[in-house]
Amino acid sequence: MARDMRAIYRAASGEAAAGRLDEFERRWGERYPSVAGSWRRAWEEVVPMFAFAPEIRRLMYTTNAIESLHRSLRKSLKTRGHFPNDRAAAKLLYLAIRNAESNWKAPVAGWRQALNQLDILCGERLRGAT
Question: In angstroms, rounded to a whole number, what is the distance separating the alpha carbons of residues 82 and 88?
């Protein structure tokens, strides 16, 4: 099933993805009707993703690193209670990101290619960020 789902979000275009979703539904729809239904209900939010290059799309649907960072941030905020002001919370988040960053060993797969695509799309917005 995962292989057939992967074919949907790795499709070259929104039209190709719609065709793959139809194939997925024919193959798995009877056994797992809620999966294809979920894709169909969210289709308007999914389609804009296909405007991006495959390298950028891969960053979008590969969320393990993002989820790990979010977990670290939630953990640091949850253990503190309340903050006297927004600046204190921002400082804590900064330190949490710095601590999480020290544990990052492996580079993000395909990052250089995705960065090149982002540079083409966003150009000036990226100049100072890399």
Answer: 10
Considering the domain architecture, whether residues 39 and 72 belong to the same structural domain is answered as: no
The domain of 29 spans 2-51
Orientation of helix 86-102 relative to helix 64-78, angle to 10°: 130
pTM: 0.57
Q: Are residues 81 and 45 in the same domain?
A: no
Residues 45 and 80 in one domain: no
At 87, the amino acid letter reads R
Count the Cβ atoms, other than its own, within 10 Å of residue 118: 20
Digit-by-digit pLDDT tens for the chain (130 residues) are: 889 988 998 898 989 999 999 999 999 999 998 998 998 999 999 888 888 888 888 877 776 777 888 888 999 888 887 889 999 999 999 999 998 888 777 777 777 888 888 888 777 777 665 5
Q: Is residue 68 part of a domain?
A: yes
If you ran DSSP here, which 8-state letter would residue 49 be given?
Answer: G
Please return the burial class of 21, using the count of CB atoms within 10 Å of its CB with bins 0-12, 13-18 and 19+. Answer: buried
